[in-house]
Design goal:
278 residues, Immunoglobulin-like, 3 domains
Length: 278
């Protein structure tokens, strides 16, 4: 019997990728995919995607050979995305990997800051809205390093400012998160601090016009400011012991307003000012 050799021509099988895992990244709308590469001859991996209950998008994207991860940035917050992958070489394609799903969360607000102090008893904060589907924003407040009130106030969707009532010489700390109608919340924003200011006052009749047209206040920068515009120089002194003793006199030349009277950093010391206008 003469042995014979045969050559069989057909498809060279490509092992399918496995262990596909979709993970929603925190504080963003993005999703990361990872998988195991089981083939030796693939040229690329084809990624298919579906949104909620929609049909598969074929193909959605692709990556090169031996690559085992992919980041999807074309996503929206609060939606569920499904993925599956195939390995491909020339005209041959593997079977699909397992399907996996991830739901994007609410992106946290960022850049929280004190915008201004509209009056001596109010402060306005502002933040950046990074979510597309929030039902509103939840504002948390802490007074003088006490406990957080995380349900202090709420504002509606797309609102990026909040005005709060404050009391003199108290420190207020704020943070903000987004929430939706399903009870989900984002991470908290950065925290911002603010120390409330004070109004000037005097019992002397000659100072009535001054009292009605000036403000001595502590700004968000931790400095005491005099806001008053006049055609004369202003002399002032201050006391930190309720008027028992006063510092040396200082002068503010006319037209140099608003002027910084003193930088007191974050001290909660009560200052009493004595001001003379010539």
């Amino acid at each position: 019997m003469i042995p014979m050799k045969y050559t069989v021509i057909g498809r060279r099988l490509i092992d399918r990728p496995t262990d596909l895992k979709a993970t929603a990244l925190p504080n963003s709308n993005n999703i990361k995919l990872t998988w195991s590469d089981n083939s030796q001859n693939e040229l690329k991996f084809i990624i298919e995607r579906r949104i909620e209950s929609q049909t598969w998008f074929e193909p959605y994207d692709s990556v090169g050979r031996n690559v085992t991860q992919f980041a999807d940035y074309n996503t929206s917050s609060g939606k569920t995305y499904g993925y599956r992958i195939q390995a491909k070489a020339q005209e041959f394609t593997s079977s699909y990997s397992n399907d996996d799903y991830a739901t994007t969360g609410l992106a946290a607000p960022t850049n929280l800051k004190v915008l201004d102090q509209p009056t001596q008893t109010t402060v306005r904060i502002q933040w950046q809205d990074n979510s597309l589907i929030e039902a509103g924003f939840q504002i948390a407040r802490c007074v003088d390093d006490g406990a957080w009130d995380e349900n202090y106030a709420t504002v509606g969707a797309n609102v990026t400012q909040f005005t709060d009532d404050v009391e003199f010489l108290h420190k207020y700390t704020y943070k903000v998160c987004a929430y939706d109608n399903q009870g989900h919340k984002s991470d908290w924003s950065n925290e911002v601090e603010f120390t409330s200011g004070m109004l000037a006052g005097s019992s002397y009749p000659r100072m009535s016009a001054f009292n009605n047209n000036c403000k001595v206040l502590r700004g968000a920068d931790g400095k005491i400011h005099l806001i008053y515009n006049d055609e004369t120089d202003i002399y002032y002194s201050y006391s930190t012991d309720n008027g028992v003793s006063f510092a040396d006199w200082e002068v503010i030349p006319k037209h140099e307003f608003p002027a910084v009277l003193i930088d007191i950093s974050r001290s909660l010391t009560r200052y009493r000012f004595f001001i003379i206008i010539y």
